[in-house]
Amino acid sequence: MRRAKSDARDDRICDLVIVGAGAKAAAVCARLRALEGSEEIVGNLSVLVVDRENCWAGNWSGAHGHTRPRALLATPPDRDVGFPYEEKQEQVRNQLLSFSWRAFLAEQKRLRSWVQKGQQHPAVEEWAAYLAWVGGRVSGRPRVTPGVDIEVALGHTVRARGIDFDLQAARWSLDFRAPYNGQKRYAKHLMLTGPGRPRTLNISVPQSGTGMKHVWDSRDMYTRSADVSRLRSKASDANIVIVGGGGAAAEAALHSAESWPEARITIVSTSPTLWTRGNSPYEWELSANPRLWATLAAEQRRTYLERFSMGAIAPLVMERLSQLANLSYETGDVTTISPMSDRVRVTIRVPWKTKTIDADVVFQCLGYDGTAVFELLSARAKAALPTGGVTDLPKHLDAGLGVKLAGVSNRLIWPGGAAERYGPGLTDLTLLGEMSRRTLNHLQI
């Protein structure tokens, strides 16, 4: 890291603020703790991690939607917050290993059992517990001098357009809705994380004649308990339509089969079939090797991302889907959803004809719009971005997964936008340790 000793002394000002207390925030904070006492840390640093949920890894826990708690983690858990642990300094590597998945299991005396059972992929709720364990260990005051002060503000909501950038003062500001009650915090650098907003069909979505909501996004399906209870009462003749053909759609099908075993479930996607991720060493190497990724042409990168990252289903999940007798698949486009007395009618354009399904529930599992996080930025902050703004930002991201603003040294870091340019391993769970290394190496704090 190229850094000078920080002159930030106001307790409202920090060197780096991270929005989102998930896997990426845990990885960056774990690396900062591992660097304490090394030559990389020149002066005392301050970091603020802020999240609107009251826990670390809320999006992984299942409590706030986004994931099915019992779903199996698609990525091997050894690809944890420090992976691949290719550190030049042995001290830093050993410190990072103390935050590893295996260290987490060892502390709970479960490592031997996990190894003996074949090192199986854990449920995502257990992965959330691991990230919370890391978060609890990294937060707090510096352990040595110079060191890092990591403040974690959980349950703190940033106002819409509440993140501003002041070019003259060369700092970011965050305006909180609660519980700071309008008090602002300031930072030299900003890191944005999180999945964004669920994508939905670009058509009008009605309620039924009874006023019930029948069309849900991929967060709703795990959180709308009242609607779940209503559907259970008529499960024997219930119809469920799932729009999408990737991992989220597959998990929605499993969730539906568990919640309503007698319901008829139909997956609708424009893809000709449901694809299975091969999990071969060749696929993983391409995902986890940014140098190899750089040799691919743009069209090859897009094809890989569609097949491996966005449109494929993990083998264990596909095996469970194949056992569902009440699941069917339709290739086509959903063109309209029309209200009925107590259902909605889904019209699907399939080759050479249209088809309708009268559905009790429609789950929209079409992925996430990662750019939605930029709705937190003010107009002035967006104006400081490179030419093209948010739309073209992925083209401008440097090897540190960020950009400098308006000719100053302040940075906006957005790993979520780096997939096509630097490979999916730096945006998902595959290379969290490399992601954190690149991020911190490009900061001047």
Structure description:
The chain is α/β, with parallel strands linked by helices and 445 residues long. The protein has 2 domains: 13-197 and 369-441, FAD/NAD(P)-binding domain (3-Layer(bba) Sandwich); 200-277 and 314-366, FAD/NAD(P)-binding domain (3-Layer(bba) Sandwich), CATH 3.50.50.60. It has helices at 23-35, 58-61, 90-97, 101-107, 111-116, 124-138, 225-232, 247-259, 281-288, 290-293, 298-310, 315-321, 379-383, 389-396, 419-422, 432-441; strands spanning 13-19, 45-51, 148-154, 157-166, 171-178, 184-192, 197-198, 215-217, 239-243, 264-269, 275-276, 312-313, 327-331, 333-339, 344-350, 353-359, 361-364, 368-369, 402-404, 411-413. Mean pLDDT is 87; it is low at 2-9.
Per DSSP E runs of 2 or more residues, the count of β-strands stands at 20
Query: Which percent range fits the helix content?
Result: 25-40%
Any idea what the shape is?
globular
- Put simply, the count of helices is 16
The termini sit apart by 8 Å
Low-confidence stretches: 2-9
Class of the largest domain in CATH?
Alpha Beta
Question: Hey, roughly how much beta strand do the residues contain?
Answer: 15-25%
- Oligomeric state of this protein: single chain
What's the Cα radius of gyration? 23 Å
Per CATH, which architecture of the largest domain?
3-Layer(bba) Sandwich
CATH topology of the largest domain: FAD/NAD(P)-binding domain
Average of pLDDT: 87
Name of the CATH superfamily of the largest domain? FAD/NAD(P)-binding domain
Largest sheet: 8 strands, mixed
Instruction: Count the domains.
Output: 2
User: Which structural class fits the helix and strand makeup?
Assistant: alpha/beta
